[in-house]
Amino acid sequence: MCEDNGLALTPPMGWATWLHFRNDWNETIIKETAQYLKSSGLFDLGYNRVNLDGGWAALYTNGSWIRNSTGYLVPDPNKFPNGMKSLSDFVHGLGLYFGHYASAPVSMGNEEKDIELYISWGIDSLKVDALDMSRNANFTFETVQKWSQLLNATGRKIIYSNCHMGCMSKMDERRGGWHPWCRQLTNMWRVSKDIQNSWADVMHGIDTLVGIGDQAGPGNWNDADFMEIGNNCPLCYPNLPLSNIEGRTHFNLWCITSQPLIIGTDIRNMSLYTFETLSNKEAIQINQAWAGFAGDRLSVNGTTEIWTKPTKGSLKVPTEVAVVLFNRDNNNSQEIMVMFDQLNLPEDSYIVYDIWMHKEVGVFQSSYKVTLMPHESAFVRVYSSKNLSGYFCLTSL
To answer: 196, CA 20 to 30 Å: which among 223, 288, 345, 384?
Structure first.
């Protein structure tokens, strides 16, 4: 089973083609992006995967995928003149992992042959997309199980990303609902619809994570889709990029809930603000840290919310807790307060460290409060004033 494959012990991090480029990308874009991940310092922060999404295959005029005379799928020769193995070797040569995309409907009946092809290219992860081919739980279970068994049988360590195959949250039960075998068979599973570059879609994504923080853990992660931060995709609808404030809230919420951090914008041309958002080392550390819980919404008060994740100790007895205070109001600033006893912290005097100011903002008794603009969030760590070091360490990113 994929939960036993020793992979994705922390939420995977990297970049993917789909959100910005849709199907319009090629070998040159992948190589330039891989090089930028390495040279910009994003790789050193943990963004170590280049993921190819839909748009790689050669198609007939009717849109169906082309197979050659021996039954293997064919990469688009115009996009990949040097072949997919050459591209994989280039990515691996930079020390990055190479992720790929498969369509479950296209592969139906040919799963063994298609996995053989992907393995020949040296893939390190595979996103298997059902494309809503079925909403029948038994059918999707059989499909997910088959891919899981075949991938494990290859002997190659491959992260299995399940997209739209029976692991949606309760908000999207029409697509299959939640089933225990999601975490038993896959390393990460989509819990939401495909995200678009709009505030409404980011909110839909985070809402699908409410109440399922306990489903995730090392080797198994809820997935509310890629990050739209800084994305000005020319091919997207509604093509209304998130504001800087909204992009930072998006990142805060994905970090506090232990989401896979997969960048969706064209990083070769992103703004300095977007780069600074995506490269906040302390926010990433919170995303990657594990103290027995993936993070979840703690409380709602009108249009304000508090999200939390223990980063030291445990869920029941934490010694440090990460907190996102979030103003969801569309028009008005709001004051938000978190009580330390809400966080299961036993004492009443705590240091609050601001993730974006990169400093301790003071010692507080019993509670901490902030006033936030519409769609703004604050991201802090709360730890005992007796523990002046405060910081936690990771074994790896």
So the answer is: 288
Question: With the C-alpha atoms ordered 52, 39, 231, 169, is the resulting torsion angle positive or negative?
Answer: positive
Catalytic residue set: 129, 194
Closest-CA residue to 261 (of 243, 280, 246, 245) = 280
> CA-CA distance, 81 to 324, in Å (whole number)?
46
pLDDT digits (tens, 9 = 90+) for 157-183: 999 999 987 777 665 555 556 677 888
DSSP assignment of 192-215, as one string?
SPPP-SSHHHHHHHHHTTTT-GGG
Q: How far apart are CA 181 and CA 160, in angstroms?
A: 13
| C-alpha closest to that of 257 among 291, 222, 226 | 222
Which domain range does residue 359 map to? 296-384
Claim to verify: residue 183 and residue 253 sit in the same structural domain: yes
DSSP E strands, 20-153: 49-51, 97-103, 125-129
For residue 338, tell me if it sits in a domain.
Answer: yes
Q: Which residues contact 374 (CB under 8 A, 6 or more apart)?
A: 327, 329, 330, 331, 332, 333
Residue 392 lies in a domain: no
Whether residue 204 contacts residue 194, with contact meaning beta carbons closer than 8 Å, is answered with no
What is the per-residue pLDDT across 146-158, written as a single tens digit (0 to 9) for each?
999 999 999 999 9
How many structural domains are present in the chain? Answer: 2
In tens, the pLDDT along 317-353 reads 999 999 999 999 999 999 999 999 999 998 779 999 9
36 HSE (CA, 13 A, CB side): 16
